[in-house]
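Example 9 (inverse folding). The structure is encoded as follows.
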């Protein structure tokens, strides 16, 4: 059984690990994305670390704003390494082995299909919630990448015309309301008009995070509950469009914000009933991905697993 190196590049963290084709983690580590000033520096850091670990035969990478046809990152709003980054070629040159580069949300969807709960599903979506918001989508058992290899940018769908400015250059993108910075911004806006007494007022503005906001909401903090209600309403709106257009079986929530767990799922489902067509009510499930749960003390990164599945499929000529 062969081992592979899987890499999950996010706007905040880069996780990577050496994993068997059966999904067993032999080594796992992460670094802050902003500690690398260039893609070349990231490649070198990972190479220097993993060369002394277990052997592997290929490299799978999930990253934002990937053009899967050119195997480049193109104009990633949450990365500062340049406009067009030939990432697959950089890794191939350094590691001297086969490399597969896929959109990060697509990687998570592939991971859900091969290692998670989507094995028997033919029509499902994975929405990744973190520094950005991404979409991995399977329709009729095929991964959807679009005509130019750039499909899945649900985070940059417009939900409010003339809304918040997004790093992509547009206004009112979904990402500006339900990704990490957007959630914190909503909380700060609501705190300005609150009468005080919120748990969130006791947290330094620089330390305020989605995790703290959802934690306060579980304690029935009124401001935090308003924020969570706003976030889940926008998320439900986006999910309803997917269900109404594509008649999906399941939508999995993944990424750091999805670890908020039941409160995120429950409130999203509540709002979803308002937006989904009557004949599609209760036909699509919303689930928190199990791939980010701890297993034997190790957090099984779904992006890494998806990257592993993508390189395994490429080298084995298996359809993903």
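The amino acid assigned to each position is listed next.
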């Amino acid at each position: 059984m062969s081992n592979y190196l899987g890499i999950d590049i996010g706007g905040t963290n880069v996780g990577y690990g050496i994993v068997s084709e059966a999904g067993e983690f032999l080594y796992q580590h992460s670094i802050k994305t902003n500690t690398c000033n260039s893609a070349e520096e990231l490649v070198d850091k990972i190479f220097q670390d993993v060369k002394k670990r277990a052997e592997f035969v290929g490299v799978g990478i999930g990253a934002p704003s990937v053009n899967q046809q050119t195997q480049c990152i193109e104009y990633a709003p949450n990365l500062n390494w340049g406009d067009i980054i030939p990432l697959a070629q950089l890794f191939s040159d350094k590691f001297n082995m086969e490399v597969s580069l896929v959109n990060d949300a697509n990687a998570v969807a592939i991971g859900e299909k091969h290692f998670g709960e989507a094995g028997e599903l033919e029509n499902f979506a994975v929405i990744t919630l973190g520094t950005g918001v991404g979409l991995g989508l399977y329709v009729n058992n095929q991964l959807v990448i679009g005509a130019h290899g750039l499909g899945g940018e649900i985070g940059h769908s417009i939900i409010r015309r003339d809304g918040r400015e997004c790093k992509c250059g547009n206004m009112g993108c979904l990402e500006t309301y339900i990704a990490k910075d957007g959630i914190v911004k909503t909380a700060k806006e609501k705190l300005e008009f609150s009468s005080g007494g919120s748990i969130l007022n006791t947290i330094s503005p620089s330390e305020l995070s989605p995790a703290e906001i959802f934690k306060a909401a579980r304690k029935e903090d009124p401001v935090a509950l308003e924020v969570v209600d706003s976030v889940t309403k926008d998320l439900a709106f986006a999910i309803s469009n997917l269900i109404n257009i594509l008649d999906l079986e399941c939508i999995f929530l993944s990424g750091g914000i999805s670890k908020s767990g039941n409160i995120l799922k429950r409130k999203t489902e509540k709002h979803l009933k308002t937006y989904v067509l009557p004949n599609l009510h209760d036909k699509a499930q919303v689930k928190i991905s199990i791939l980010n749960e701890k297993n034997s003390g190790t957090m099984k990164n779904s992006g890494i697993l998806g990257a592993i599945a993508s390189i395994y499929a490429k080298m084995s000529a298996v359809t993903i």
